[in-house]
Amino acid sequence: MLDVIIAGAGPAGTLAALVLARAGARVLVVDRETFPRDKLCGDTLNPGALSLLGSLDLGGGPLDAAPRLAGMVVTGAGTRVVARYGGGTAGVALSRRVFDAWLLDEAVRAGARFEGGLVVRGPLMGEANGAAVVRGLTMSRRGAPSRPLRVPAALVIAADGRRSVVARALGLAVHPRSPRRWAFGAYLSGVAEISDLGEMHIAAGRYVGIAPLGGGVANVCVVTGPRPDGRSPIEVMRNAIARAGRLQRRFQGASFVSDVRVLGPMAVGARAAGVRGALLAGDAAGFIDPMTGDGLHLAMRGGVLAARAALLGLESSDLDRALRQLEDDRRREIEPKVRFNRALRRVVESRWAVGAAGWGARLAPAAVRWAVRYAGDAA
Questions:
Q1: Where does residue 216 fall: left (phi above 0), alpha (psi -120 to 50 degrees), or beta otherwise?
Q2: Cβ neighbours for 136, distance < 8 A, ≥ 6 positions apart
Q3: Cβ–Cβ contacts within 10 Å for residue 44, how many?
Q4: Single pTM value for the model
Q5: Residue 362: pLDDT band by 50, 70, 90 thresholds?
Q6: 3-state secondary structure 310-353
Q7: What is the torsional sign of CA 103, 106, 112, 117?
């Protein structure tokens, strides 16, 4: 029987698989997609994400060829602040299509198995000492939903994203009524004045993020409130750019080189880090608003923490201990950044707060620079 089955082959799931496989665990990673595949994301790895990868001896490959990001430029309410990480610290811009496939290859090379085209239908439930326990996953082949597969495992790690089937089936997913935000993202060529900085352009109820991917192509992501301004995804993006002041001029010669992908609503949380026999990781444990640029780092760190807790559970044969360990680790290593993320998100929701923040930034730009370095784990 498998030691661990992991739902989801994104960065959280594959890093969990890599840590487990290196420790000698029998690991299977499943995903409905085959790889490489495209994914809506800001396509940035901040310094904290790179540091985490380095601690796992993951480097080289596409990371070496990726454009370096020396910091962020933040604009809003008539204010522009350039915040460099300093000290030679940098992040990188790298498409999820390339990054996720590379991480998956590393996990397989470490000894994990991967099967694409498997759709997770829910947890495989059992009983121990009169209490319910997760004993694996129920799945189906993509395109053949009438033939269920039941795959048992000692432990499950649910890293199947913000719409996690496992978290929802276990009653762990939380969908708050606000904020109800939607993300629209695409690749564009010909955006003017691209530099070695990521960009965040903030207005009340929305923001525009830009990341340079090299070769004259930039990742552009627009995040809006519950009533996007436009009749189509591409119109929503064009209208947001047109309303972003001097940003409009920089896009006069730009053209879309990909379809616009849409993600939302983004307000998703989790009641707990898991249940007996199942641990949550990545966006399944709570979706991180992309505004601060540390979503990928926190997702990957959550995957590593879930793997270490799983190893503790396997070694001790105590599933409750594994869950307690994960909850403690997430509270210590992830929750402070989540609270910071939520505080910034509340600012964007209010026109008054955006104006006040812009006024404050003009008086104390060092505070914005600190926030950028903190979000990037370079403070």
A1: left
A2: 2, 5, 123, 124, 150, 151, 152, 153, 156
A3: 27
A4: 0.93
A5: low
A6: HHHHHHHCCHHHHHHHHHHHHHHHCHHHHHHHHHHHHHHHCHHH
A7: positive
**What is the amino acid identity at position 132?**
A
- Strand-strand pairing, 144-158 and 2-7: parallel
Cα–Cα distance for residue pair 103/12, rounded to 1 Å = 10
Residue 351 has pLDDT above 80, yes or no: no
pLDDT band at 350 (very low <50, low <70, confident <90, very high): low
Does residue 349 have a pLDDT over 60? no
Tell me the residue length of the chain: 379
Q: Could you give the domains of the chain?
A: 2-39+96-175+268-333 (3.50.50.60), 44-94+177-266+348-379 (3.50.50.60)
Read off the tokens for 13: 């799931």
**Residue 178 — very low, low, confident or very high, per pLDDT cuts 50/70/90?**
low
* 118 close to 30: Cβ distance less than 8 angstroms: yes
pLDDT given at position 76 = 76
Mean pLDDT of 270-299: 87
Q: C-alpha angle 279/283/288, rounded to 5°?
A: 135
Type of residue at 101: A
Question: pLDDT-based confidence at 81, cuts 50/70/90?
Answer: confident
Residue 302 CA, distance from chain mean position: 10
- Rounded Cα distance between 208 and 224, Å, is 9
Whether the CA torsion 346, 350, 352, 357 is positive or negative: it is: positive
Q: Which residue carries 């940098």 as its tokens?
A: 90
